[in-house]
Protein backbone atom coordinates (compact mmCIF):
# COMPACT_ATOMS: atom_id res chain seq x y z
CA UNK A 1 0.00 0.00 0.00
CA UNK A 2 1.40 3.39 -0.90
CA UNK A 3 0.48 6.95 -0.06
CA UNK A 4 1.83 10.43 -0.77
CA UNK A 5 1.71 13.19 1.80
CA UNK A 6 2.64 16.85 2.11
CA UNK A 7 4.96 17.30 5.07
CA UNK A 8 4.29 19.21 8.28
CA UNK A 9 6.66 19.96 11.13
CA UNK A 10 7.04 17.91 14.33
CA UNK A 11 8.81 19.42 17.33
CA UNK A 12 11.69 17.54 18.97
CA UNK A 13 12.44 18.39 22.61
CA UNK A 14 15.64 20.41 22.56
CA UNK A 15 16.71 18.99 25.92
CA UNK A 16 17.25 15.54 24.44
CA UNK A 17 18.55 16.39 20.97
CA UNK A 18 22.11 16.69 19.81
CA UNK A 19 23.41 18.66 16.90
CA UNK A 20 24.57 16.32 14.17
CA UNK A 21 25.17 17.41 10.62
CA UNK A 22 22.01 17.25 8.57
CA UNK A 23 22.31 14.88 5.62
CA UNK A 24 23.59 16.40 2.40
CA UNK A 25 22.15 15.82 -1.07
CA UNK A 26 18.90 14.56 0.41
CA UNK A 27 16.05 14.53 -2.12
CA UNK A 28 13.23 16.90 -1.30
CA UNK A 29 10.77 14.07 -2.02
CA UNK A 30 11.63 10.98 0.01
CA UNK A 31 10.62 7.37 -0.48
CA UNK A 32 9.82 5.85 2.92
CA UNK A 33 9.27 2.10 3.24
CA UNK A 34 7.83 0.47 6.39
CA UNK A 35 8.82 -3.19 6.24
CA UNK A 36 6.77 -4.76 9.07
CA UNK A 37 3.88 -2.95 10.69
CA UNK A 38 2.34 -6.10 12.16
CA UNK A 39 3.94 -5.47 15.56
CA UNK A 40 3.49 -1.77 16.18
CA UNK A 41 1.47 -0.16 13.41
CA UNK A 42 2.39 3.35 12.28
CA UNK A 43 1.45 6.85 13.39
CA UNK A 44 0.57 9.51 10.82
CA UNK A 45 3.97 10.23 9.26
CA UNK A 46 5.04 13.87 9.04
CA UNK A 47 8.26 15.50 7.83
CA UNK A 48 9.54 19.06 8.21
CA UNK A 49 8.88 21.42 5.27
CA UNK A 50 9.74 21.58 2.47
CA UNK A 51 10.11 17.80 2.36
CA UNK A 52 7.38 15.58 0.95
CA UNK A 53 7.28 11.81 0.83
CA UNK A 54 5.78 8.63 -0.53
CA UNK A 55 5.04 5.92 2.01
CA UNK A 56 4.95 2.20 1.17
CA UNK A 57 3.68 -0.08 3.93
CA UNK A 58 4.18 -3.82 4.30
CA UNK A 59 2.58 -5.75 7.14
CA UNK A 60 5.33 -8.39 7.05
CA UNK A 61 8.61 -8.80 5.20
CA UNK A 62 10.73 -11.94 4.91
CA UNK A 63 14.51 -11.34 5.07
CA UNK A 64 14.79 -12.47 1.44
CA UNK A 65 12.41 -9.67 0.40
CA UNK A 66 14.22 -6.81 2.16
CA UNK A 67 16.54 -5.81 -0.68
CA UNK A 68 13.82 -5.76 -3.31
CA UNK A 69 11.44 -3.76 -1.13
CA UNK A 70 14.11 -1.19 -0.24
CA UNK A 71 15.58 -0.81 -3.73
CA UNK A 72 14.13 2.71 -4.17
CA UNK A 73 13.90 3.64 -0.49
CA UNK A 74 15.56 6.65 1.09
CA UNK A 75 14.30 5.75 4.57
CA UNK A 76 13.40 2.33 6.01
CA UNK A 77 11.15 1.82 9.03
CA UNK A 78 11.74 -1.55 10.70
CA UNK A 79 11.24 -3.53 13.88
CA UNK A 80 13.07 -6.88 13.91
CA UNK A 81 13.50 -8.02 10.31
CA UNK A 82 17.12 -8.78 9.37
CA UNK A 83 18.88 -5.97 7.52
CA UNK A 84 22.15 -7.58 6.51
CA UNK A 85 24.85 -7.40 3.86
CA UNK A 86 22.76 -8.54 0.89
CA UNK A 87 20.17 -5.80 1.41
CA UNK A 88 22.82 -3.19 2.24
CA UNK A 89 24.76 -3.70 -0.97
CA UNK A 90 24.89 -0.26 -2.69
CA UNK A 91 23.92 -1.93 -5.93
CA UNK A 92 20.72 -3.21 -4.30
CA UNK A 93 19.72 -0.22 -2.13
CA UNK A 94 21.58 2.73 -3.70
CA UNK A 95 19.31 5.44 -2.24
CA UNK A 96 19.10 4.20 1.33
CA UNK A 97 20.12 6.94 3.78
CA UNK A 98 18.37 6.07 7.04
CA UNK A 99 16.99 3.11 8.97
CA UNK A 100 14.78 3.90 11.94
CA UNK A 101 13.92 0.98 14.21
CA UNK A 102 10.70 1.18 16.20
CA UNK A 103 12.28 -1.04 18.85
CA UNK A 104 15.16 -0.68 21.28
CA UNK A 105 17.25 -3.58 19.95
CA UNK A 106 19.18 -3.24 16.70
CA UNK A 107 21.05 -6.57 16.69
CA UNK A 108 19.12 -7.52 13.52
CA UNK A 109 20.83 -4.67 11.60
CA UNK A 110 24.41 -4.84 10.33
CA UNK A 111 25.53 -1.66 12.06
CA UNK A 112 29.21 -1.73 10.95
CA UNK A 113 28.14 -1.97 7.32
CA UNK A 114 25.64 0.85 7.79
CA UNK A 115 28.40 3.02 9.26
CA UNK A 116 30.66 2.18 6.34
CA UNK A 117 27.95 3.23 3.90
CA UNK A 118 26.97 6.33 5.86
CA UNK A 119 23.47 5.02 6.53
CA UNK A 120 22.11 6.57 9.69
CA UNK A 121 20.49 4.08 12.11
CA UNK A 122 18.27 5.29 14.94
CA UNK A 123 16.32 3.20 17.43
CA UNK A 124 13.55 3.68 19.99
CA UNK A 125 15.82 3.66 23.01
CA UNK A 126 13.94 3.11 26.27
CA UNK A 127 10.54 2.73 24.63
CA UNK A 128 9.72 -0.49 26.47
CA UNK A 129 11.51 -0.11 29.82
CA UNK A 130 8.43 -0.24 32.06
CA UNK A 131 6.73 -3.07 30.19
CA UNK A 132 9.82 -5.31 30.10
CA UNK A 133 10.72 -4.66 33.74
CA UNK A 134 7.18 -5.42 34.91
CA UNK A 135 7.10 -8.59 32.80
CA UNK A 136 10.36 -9.68 34.46
CA UNK A 137 8.74 -9.23 37.88
CA UNK A 138 5.74 -11.26 36.70
CA UNK A 139 8.01 -14.08 35.53
CA UNK A 140 9.79 -14.00 38.88
CA UNK A 141 6.57 -14.51 40.86
CA UNK A 142 5.35 -17.22 38.47
CA UNK A 143 8.63 -19.11 38.96
CA UNK A 144 9.04 -18.50 42.68
CA UNK A 145 5.48 -19.75 43.36
CA UNK A 146 5.74 -22.54 40.72
CA UNK A 147 2.46 -21.45 39.16
CA UNK A 148 2.80 -23.43 35.93
CA UNK A 149 3.59 -26.88 37.47
CA UNK A 150 0.86 -26.50 40.10
CA UNK A 151 -1.64 -25.38 37.45
CA UNK A 152 -0.74 -28.41 35.33
CA UNK A 153 -1.41 -30.74 38.28
CA UNK A 154 -4.75 -29.08 38.90
CA UNK A 155 -5.73 -29.64 35.27
CA UNK A 156 -4.65 -33.27 35.64
CA UNK A 157 -7.15 -33.63 38.53
CA UNK A 158 -4.38 -34.67 40.91
CA UNK A 159 -5.65 -32.67 43.90
CA UNK A 160 -8.69 -34.86 44.65
CA UNK A 161 -6.77 -37.98 43.64
CA UNK A 162 -3.85 -37.33 46.03
CA UNK A 163 -5.53 -35.23 48.68
CA UNK A 164 -2.88 -32.52 48.36
CA UNK A 165 -0.51 -31.20 45.73
CA UNK A 166 1.36 -28.75 47.90
CA UNK A 167 4.57 -30.52 46.89
CA UNK A 168 4.01 -29.06 43.42
CA UNK A 169 4.95 -25.59 44.70
CA UNK A 170 8.16 -26.68 46.42
CA UNK A 171 11.41 -25.88 44.61
CA UNK A 172 13.94 -28.66 45.09
CA UNK A 173 12.11 -29.44 48.32
CA UNK A 174 12.13 -25.82 49.52
CA UNK A 175 9.10 -23.65 50.21
CA UNK A 176 8.91 -20.28 48.47
CA UNK A 177 11.07 -17.48 49.84
CA UNK A 178 9.60 -14.16 50.86
CA UNK A 179 10.77 -11.16 48.85
CA UNK A 180 12.82 -9.87 51.78
CA UNK A 181 14.81 -13.14 51.73
CA UNK A 182 15.81 -12.82 48.07
CA UNK A 183 19.17 -11.68 46.74
CA UNK A 184 18.80 -10.61 43.12
CA UNK A 185 21.74 -10.39 40.73
CA UNK A 186 21.02 -8.16 37.76
CA UNK A 187 23.06 -8.82 34.62
CA UNK A 188 22.84 -5.73 32.46
CA UNK A 189 22.17 -2.38 34.10
CA UNK A 190 20.72 -0.21 31.38
CA UNK A 191 17.24 1.23 31.46
CA UNK A 192 15.47 -2.10 31.96
CA UNK A 193 17.97 -3.35 34.55
CA UNK A 194 17.65 -0.13 36.54
CA UNK A 195 13.86 -0.29 36.46
CA UNK A 196 13.89 -3.95 37.53
CA UNK A 197 16.18 -3.00 40.42
CA UNK A 198 13.80 -0.26 41.53
CA UNK A 199 10.77 -2.56 41.45
CA UNK A 200 12.46 -5.42 43.28
CA UNK A 201 13.97 -3.15 45.93
CA UNK A 202 10.49 -1.79 46.56
CA UNK A 203 9.40 -5.38 47.26
CA UNK A 204 12.11 -5.66 49.90
CA UNK A 205 14.68 -7.64 47.94
CA UNK A 206 18.43 -7.24 48.25
CA UNK A 207 19.56 -6.23 44.76
CA UNK A 208 23.13 -6.45 43.48
CA UNK A 209 24.46 -5.56 40.04
CA UNK A 210 26.93 -7.98 38.47
CA UNK A 211 30.14 -6.75 36.89
CA UNK A 212 31.36 -7.88 33.49
CA UNK A 213 32.00 -11.57 32.96
CA UNK A 214 35.68 -12.52 32.95
CA UNK A 215 36.76 -9.66 35.20
CA UNK A 216 37.97 -10.56 38.70
CA UNK A 217 37.13 -7.10 39.96
CA UNK A 218 34.09 -4.97 39.33
CA UNK A 219 33.43 -1.26 39.15
CA UNK A 220 32.34 0.51 42.29
CA UNK A 221 28.83 -0.52 43.42
CA UNK A 222 29.02 -3.71 41.33
CA UNK A 223 29.81 -7.27 42.38
CA UNK A 224 32.23 -9.45 40.36
CA UNK A 225 30.29 -11.64 37.95
CA UNK A 226 30.91 -15.07 39.47
CA UNK A 227 30.55 -13.79 43.03
CA UNK A 228 27.15 -12.38 42.10
CA UNK A 229 26.03 -15.78 40.77
CA UNK A 230 27.25 -17.55 43.90
CA UNK A 231 25.11 -15.46 46.27
CA UNK A 232 22.04 -14.93 44.08
CA UNK A 233 18.67 -16.54 44.68
CA UNK A 234 17.34 -14.71 41.61
CA UNK A 235 19.25 -13.86 38.41
CA UNK A 236 17.68 -11.39 35.99
CA UNK A 237 19.22 -10.89 32.54
CA UNK A 238 18.60 -7.45 31.00
CA UNK A 239 21.68 -7.08 28.78
CA UNK A 240 21.88 -6.63 25.00
CA UNK A 241 23.16 -9.43 22.78
CA UNK A 242 26.77 -8.76 21.78
CA UNK A 243 29.86 -10.86 21.17
CA UNK A 244 30.67 -10.41 24.88
CA UNK A 245 27.25 -11.47 26.14
CA UNK A 246 26.52 -14.41 23.84
CA UNK A 247 26.05 -17.49 26.06
CA UNK A 248 26.68 -15.30 29.09
CA UNK A 249 25.06 -18.07 31.12
CA UNK A 250 26.11 -21.58 30.13
CA UNK A 251 27.21 -24.80 31.84
CA UNK A 252 29.98 -23.28 33.97
CA UNK A 253 27.87 -20.34 35.08
CA UNK A 254 24.92 -22.53 36.11
CA UNK A 255 27.35 -24.69 38.09
CA UNK A 256 28.51 -21.55 39.92
CA UNK A 257 25.00 -20.86 41.23
CA UNK A 258 24.85 -22.12 44.82
CA UNK A 259 21.24 -21.53 45.85
CA UNK A 260 19.22 -24.67 45.04
CA UNK A 261 16.04 -22.63 44.64
CA UNK A 262 17.59 -19.93 42.42
CA UNK A 263 15.35 -18.76 39.58
CA UNK A 264 16.72 -17.29 36.36
CA UNK A 265 14.73 -14.68 34.43
CA UNK A 266 15.67 -13.76 30.86
CA UNK A 267 14.04 -10.69 29.31
CA UNK A 268 17.18 -9.73 27.37
CA UNK A 269 17.90 -11.71 24.20
CA UNK A 270 17.72 -15.45 23.69
CA UNK A 271 21.37 -15.75 22.73
CA UNK A 272 22.64 -14.56 26.11
CA UNK A 273 21.60 -17.88 27.67
CA UNK A 274 22.67 -21.31 26.40
CA UNK A 275 19.25 -22.95 26.14
CA UNK A 276 20.62 -26.51 26.29
CA UNK A 277 22.63 -25.70 29.41
CA UNK A 278 19.59 -24.01 30.97
CA UNK A 279 17.47 -27.09 30.39
CA UNK A 280 20.12 -29.36 31.92
CA UNK A 281 20.41 -27.05 34.94
CA UNK A 282 16.65 -27.31 35.48
CA UNK A 283 16.59 -31.09 35.10
CA UNK A 284 19.56 -31.58 37.44
CA UNK A 285 18.30 -29.18 40.10
CA UNK A 286 21.26 -26.81 39.75
CA UNK A 287 18.65 -24.07 39.55
CA UNK A 288 15.09 -24.07 40.80
CA UNK A 289 13.25 -22.42 37.96
CA UNK A 290 13.43 -20.20 34.89
CA UNK A 291 11.28 -17.56 33.25
CA UNK A 292 12.09 -17.02 29.57
CA UNK A 293 10.63 -14.43 27.21
CA UNK A 294 13.28 -14.61 24.48
CA UNK A 295 14.82 -17.40 22.44
CA UNK A 296 18.02 -18.01 20.51
CA UNK A 297 16.02 -18.55 17.31
CA UNK A 298 12.78 -16.69 16.75
CA UNK A 299 10.01 -17.35 15.92
CA UNK A 300 10.65 -20.13 18.44
CA UNK A 301 9.15 -23.61 18.41
CA UNK A 302 10.07 -27.19 19.28
CA UNK A 303 12.11 -27.54 16.09
CA UNK A 304 14.54 -24.79 17.09
CA UNK A 305 14.40 -24.54 20.88
CA UNK A 306 14.97 -27.35 23.40
CA UNK A 307 12.84 -25.37 25.85
CA UNK A 308 9.68 -25.83 23.78
CA UNK A 309 9.57 -29.57 23.06
CA UNK A 310 6.50 -31.62 24.02
CA UNK A 311 8.69 -33.56 26.45
CA UNK A 312 9.58 -30.38 28.34
CA UNK A 313 5.96 -29.23 28.36
CA UNK A 314 4.93 -32.55 29.97
CA UNK A 315 7.90 -32.75 32.35
CA UNK A 316 6.58 -30.55 35.14
CA UNK A 317 9.71 -28.42 35.12
CA UNK A 318 9.45 -25.03 36.79
CA UNK A 319 9.79 -23.26 33.45
CA UNK A 320 7.64 -20.33 32.36
CA UNK A 321 7.91 -19.30 28.71
CA UNK A 322 6.35 -16.33 26.92
CA UNK A 323 6.63 -15.51 23.19
CA UNK A 324 8.86 -12.38 23.29
CA UNK A 325 5.98 -10.26 24.53
CA UNK A 326 7.61 -8.54 27.52
CA UNK A 327 7.90 -5.32 25.49
CA UNK A 328 4.22 -5.17 24.63
CA UNK A 329 2.20 -2.46 26.34
CA UNK A 330 0.07 0.57 25.57
CA UNK A 331 2.79 2.96 26.70
CA UNK A 332 5.41 1.10 24.66
CA UNK A 333 3.40 1.59 21.49
CA UNK A 334 2.84 5.27 22.26
CA UNK A 335 6.58 5.70 22.83
CA UNK A 336 7.43 3.88 19.61
CA UNK A 337 5.16 6.12 17.54
CA UNK A 338 6.45 9.31 19.18
CA UNK A 339 10.09 8.28 18.79
CA UNK A 340 9.61 7.35 15.15
CA UNK A 341 8.38 10.85 14.34
CA UNK A 342 11.18 12.42 16.39
CA UNK A 343 13.76 10.25 14.62
CA UNK A 344 12.51 11.24 11.18
CA UNK A 345 12.47 14.90 12.13
CA UNK A 346 15.89 14.69 13.78
CA UNK A 347 17.51 12.91 10.86
CA UNK A 348 16.41 15.52 8.35
CA UNK A 349 17.27 18.52 10.54
CA UNK A 350 20.43 17.07 12.11
CA UNK A 351 18.97 17.30 15.63
CA UNK A 352 18.89 13.71 16.87
CA UNK A 353 18.58 12.23 20.33
CA UNK A 354 22.13 10.89 20.93
CA UNK A 355 20.81 7.94 22.94
CA UNK A 356 19.09 6.62 19.82
CA UNK A 357 22.00 6.87 17.37
CA UNK A 358 23.32 3.40 16.56
CA UNK A 359 25.13 4.16 13.31
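-> sequence recovered:
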Amino acid sequence: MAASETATAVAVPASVSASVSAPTNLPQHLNIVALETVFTGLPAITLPPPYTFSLTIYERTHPDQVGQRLKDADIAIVTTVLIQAAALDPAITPRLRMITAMVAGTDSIDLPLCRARGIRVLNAHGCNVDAVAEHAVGLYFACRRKMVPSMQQLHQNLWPERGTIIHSVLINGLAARSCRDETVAILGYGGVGQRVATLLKALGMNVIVAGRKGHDTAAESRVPFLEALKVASVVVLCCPLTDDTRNLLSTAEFAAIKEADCVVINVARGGVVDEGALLKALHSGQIGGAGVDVFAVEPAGPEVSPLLTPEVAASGLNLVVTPHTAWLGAQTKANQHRMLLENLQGFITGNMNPERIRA
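The first helix runs from residue 66 to 69.
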